[in-house]
Amino acid sequence: MKPGILRTAALLTAFVLGGLVPQAHVAAGAIRWLIMGMLFVVFLQTRVSRAALHRSHFILLVANLAVGFAAWGFGWLIGGRDVALSAFFAGITPTATAAPVVVSFLGGNVAYVVAAFVLTNVIIAALLPVMLPLVLGRATPAVFGQVARSVGLLVFVPMALAWLVRLVHPPAVRWPARLANVSFGAWAVALFLITANASQFLRTQADLPRLIVLEIAGASLVTCAAGFALGWLIGGREFAREASQSLGQKNNNFTIYLAMTYASPLVALGPTFYVLWHNVWNTWQLHRHHLASEHAPAPSQP
CA 243 to CA 245: how far, in whole Å? Predict the structure, then answer.
């Protein structure tokens, strides 16, 4: 089995195990540090020049914001405030740290996705202190400050630290290649803890209407499908696969933490379900690519 399929299967296994071991929710506080560690490793190797940016990157950024607010509106229509917030946290999430890896397995343009990752993560992180209080209905200076501190710790501290380490020790740019398995392990552990936390919440809320859970799952699925489809259209002939992955595969660990911190475990189910949906789609894409590679005609000999 190809490494890409094995890794995606491992993430789905972490998702299942988290559902079966809700007791692990006691370690949910580690999620923040796992996210920071993964982002630090990514930022160590991330250098985006102006030449790497394409016009479609800025369209993707606007689309990412639009998907978040469209999902919020859709959630209000089908289920009310909690469903709307869960869909917002799923849709507003920037490009995943693993999106460039998946694109590399699919034979796409990795540099394009790296540029999308940097642009969406930095700009959306900068805007979240303004956006979150508005959608939460708590637009006060105190909440703005709290969100800014959380986002700054999660995104901008690892970014600044990576820049400093690269400056002091230039060979550090080679660390991510050596730490690839460590980063993947951190990702799997974070997913396990996130799912365990969601499982614990559902098990302790016996009176929670199952309908609202289904509405959250459905809104998250629609948001996921819309992201991949819209990204494909934005990328056009040249970058369809890359733009689709950049808009569809999201850094959900980041917004799950924010949802649990500023909303509720119920709202955090939106981006948690999204993790399942985009990993199912990634598994299917990798499987199709593997089959296509096997059946591709061998290059003719000179």
Answer: 5
User: Three-state DSSP class for 206?
Assistant: coil
Encoded amino acid at 233, one letter: L
Radius of gyration of the chain (CA): 19
* Burial of residue 280 (number of CB atoms within 10 Å: 0-12, 13-18, 19+): middle
Two tokens at 278?
């985009």
For the chain, report the end-to-end CA distance as a whole number of angstroms.
Answer: 31
Name the average pLDDT for the chain: 85
Nearest to 120, CA basis, from 85, 92, 94, 159: 94
143 near 133, Cβ under 8 Å?
Answer: yes
Q: Give alpha helix (H) positions in 21-54.
A: 30-44
Query: Is there a contact between 24 and 193 (Cβ–Cβ < 8 Å)?
Result: yes
What domains does the chain contain, in order, with CATH numbers?
3-289 (1.20.1530.20)
Q: What is the pLDDT of residues 140-168, one digit of tens each?
A: 677 677 777 777 787 788 888 988 999 99
Is residue 85 within 8 A of residue 75, CB to CB? The reply is: yes
The Cα–Cα gap between 217 and 273 comes to 6
Confidence of residue 25 (pLDDT cuts 50, 70, 90): confident
- Between CA 34 and CA 42 the distance in angstroms is 13
Confidence of residue 302 (pLDDT cuts 50, 70, 90): very low
